[in-house]
Amino acid sequence: MNNPYIVLPVLFQLFTAVLLLFFWFRVNTQRLITIICSLTSVGIAIWLFSEVYNNGILTMQAGEWKAPFGITFVADIFSSTMVLLTSISGMAVAIFATGSIRNARLKFGFFPILNFLLMGLHGAFLTGDIFNLYVWFEIIIIASFVLITIGGEKAQIEGAMKYVTMNLLASAIFLTAIAILYGMAGSLNMADLSGQVAQIENRGLVNVVAILFLVGFGIKSAIFPLYFWLPASYHTPPPAISAIFGGLLTKVGVYALLRIFTLIFIPDEFLSNLLIVMAALTILSGGLGAILQVNMRKIFSYLIVCHIGFMIAGLGIYTELAILGAIFYLIHDIVVKTNLFLISGLIFKLKGTLNIEKLGGIYKKYPKYALLIAISLFSLVGIPPLSGFWAKIFLIQGGYQEGQYTLIGFILLGSFLTLWVIAKLWSEVFWKESVDLPKKINVKYFSELVPFKQWVMIIPIVFLTIITLYIGLAAEHIIILSKQISYELMNPSVYIEAVLGTQIETP
Amino acid sequence: MKTIIFKTASTYLLPLLILFSVFILLRGHYLPGGGFVGGLIASIAFIIHSFANGLEKTKTIIKFHPGFLMPIGLAIALLSGAAPLLIGQSLMTGLWFDEPIAVIGMVGSALFFDTGVYLVVIGVTLTIIFTITETI
Amino acid sequence: MELLLVILIGLLYAAGIYMMLRRSMVKLILGLILLGNGANMLIFLLGRIVKGKPPIIDSAEKMFTEIYADPVPQALILTAIVISFGLQSFAIILVKRAYKITDTDDLDELNTTDEIYE
């Protein structure tokens, strides 16, 4: 069904960014606009979600150029869920940033660029055109480049060098893949490509292109041999920026992988085996890396890598049940990872360090905060009935049905490693006797902040924790949603029909 | 650069190139040209001037920070792109005035979009070049 | 023509990757630029090179009956060039900042963020 208003989430973020640009130097006005506009954008995302949930797939042809010739925007249930999650995390981070980011950084345009980043994310989720996806990816990375370097400390610049290089390389590979795909199929519309690619006789070349896409998106989503830039750079910028990166940027890569490998390139045996091996090694290397680290944000960075493995495992098993698990994990992971990085920001403000060997005594001194943080930490591990548990159940069940016992072993090992890391973190940071840390001059401690700033740092964490609890305790809603998403992903004819407007025979 | 020929030429090149860039902007709908190229030509005009006379002199000509052109251009592009939404059509559908305007010809929302691009390109290019020049 | 382009694209990719594997930051940027140009040329080549056949048909006909020059690759390349212009200018400024802060051009020196105890 045609609905021209499905681009509103994208346009509204652009509108917010432009509005903020006009108030470049007035930091307090920017704070106010950010809070109001991020709340509105959640409203728009909820509208889009309910519209798609009730009416099925909505499309928009930019400039009224019919698909497959023009650029198509498609809001199916998967994209609209991702848009909703993006705007929720975006709102939490934006509100947290009004309290935690220093004025010096805000004067370099933190808020406008954050909104450009969110615009890119919304666009990437909503587009139905593969070259347009490339353009949105470029908008995302250029905004993230500015965010990661804003402030210009030594560690930030060093981390940014690695981040920038790997992302530019990934873009070049992605562009190469698009070039070959266009040469082969002569189309850029993803729904059209689905049919065109299936008819190409030179399967070898198709597989090469599929691998190019896998490498390009693999770098962005930090899969096993391509993830080394992530732990080297994600802990360097301020916590609010790490939160949006950790929560959403790698997940766009996962979204693109899920979309491309269910719609255009249906994995053959070689490709699914490759995905499974990569997933297993991603889980193992991320988990082992996290054990070794002492910086809290680096631990979380390695855990991002570890948990990306779960989603790729779901894609590798490639049954409806396994994809359901991957989608559920994706939904849970975006909320929890965003929250964890925000929490690390809160702990830094409380104590002035993130080294877990020096931290301690938070449970004794701040029992309420400790309880709040515990919910997120334990749902990351997947302690029932919290949110991480349900996703893993479906992944393991999906793997069991397909006889992927080794992969199940790796998933259990990954959960175990996560449990080990979180237990260590809990005992070191929360239960250990606190040591008196020397006061740092250049850190503004939590107790020194004005009450407004204290509140805007706590409220997003509480909000995201409530959502985590909802995902865990009302899991049946999320399961129904994920089931529908995975059904649509595994039966792309509905999507193709909605975009091209023709009846397609199901193979 | 301190050659007298270049310096004299740059004074005349500045208005000429800016005029040429507007010409390129306006012919862009059906013929080669458009906002991006026009914006680049206009910013080249200022860059040549800054090479010949120094950055300070160019800044006194522009009077405001070129970065300020970015939000203005983006706002124009956003409004012209989103205008069809108000009448229930898709994003970026071309809307045209019925009567042609003297000199310019037919005016549609594409022209406003291109003007926005033109301003953004000038703003971005000059900001980048000025930042690099200042910190050398 | 195609053969020449194929060789050129191969050279650009090879040179780009070779430059990226050097340890100098400046060569890294040069490598990325070459790689981007190679990708653009690849789009140009794979859009099929046709000379003097604009994609215009008679109003009486409904579809193309013979081969025509595809305008889409040009639009794609233009977009890619504009994007890489922005990305590369950012990367150059970043390299300059990194050189000022770390006082070295050697990428192997940029390893403090990988250390466990910073």
Automatic annotation (TrEMBL), chain A:
Tree of life domain: Bacteria
A Pfam cross-reference name: Proton_antipo_M
Membrane topology reported for the UniProt record: Multi-pass membrane protein
Keyword annotations from UniProtKB, A to Z: Cell membrane, Membrane, Transmembrane, Transmembrane helix
InterPro entries in the cross-refs: CPA3_Na-H_Antiporter_D, NADH_UbQ_OxRdtase, ND/Mrp_TM
Family affiliation: Belongs to the CPA3 antiporters (TC 2.A.63) subunit D family.
Record's protein name: Cation:proton antiporter
Annotated source species: Belliella aquatica
Lineage summary: Bacteria, Pseudomonadati, Bacteroidota, Cytophagia, Cytophagales
Automatic annotation (TrEMBL), chain B:
Compartmental location: Cell membrane
Transmembrane segments: 12-30, 36-55, 67-87, 107-132
Record key words, sorted: Cell membrane, Membrane, Transmembrane, Transmembrane helix
Predominant location: membrane
Sequence ranges assigned to domain Na+/H+ antiporter MnhB subunit-related protein in this UniProt record: 5-127
Membrane topology note: Multi-pass membrane protein
InterPro entries: CPA3_antiporter_subunitB (IPR050622), MnhB (IPR007182)
Highest taxon of the lineage: Bacteria
Keyword Transmembrane: yes
Family: Belongs to the CPA3 antiporters (TC 2.A.63) subunit B family.
PANTHER family: NA(+)/H(+) ANTIPORTER SUBUNIT B, NA(+)_H(+) ANTIPORTER SUBUNIT B
Protein name, per record: Na(+)/H(+) antiporter subunit B
Protein species of origin: Belliella aquatica
Gene designation per UniProt: mrpB
From TrEMBL, chain C:
The entry's keywords: Cell membrane, Membrane, Transmembrane, Transmembrane helix
Transmembrane segments: 6-21, 28-50, 75-95
Keyword Cell membrane assigned: yes
Coiled coil: none
Location(s) in or outside the cell: Cell membrane
Membrane topology: Multi-pass membrane protein
Gene3D superfamilies (UniProt xref): 1.10.287.3510
Pfam families xrefs: Oxidored_q2
PANTHER family assigned: ANTIPORTER SUBUNIT MNHC2-RELATED
Family: Belongs to the CPA3 antiporters (TC 2.A.63) subunit C family.
Protein name as it appears in the record: Cation:proton antiporter
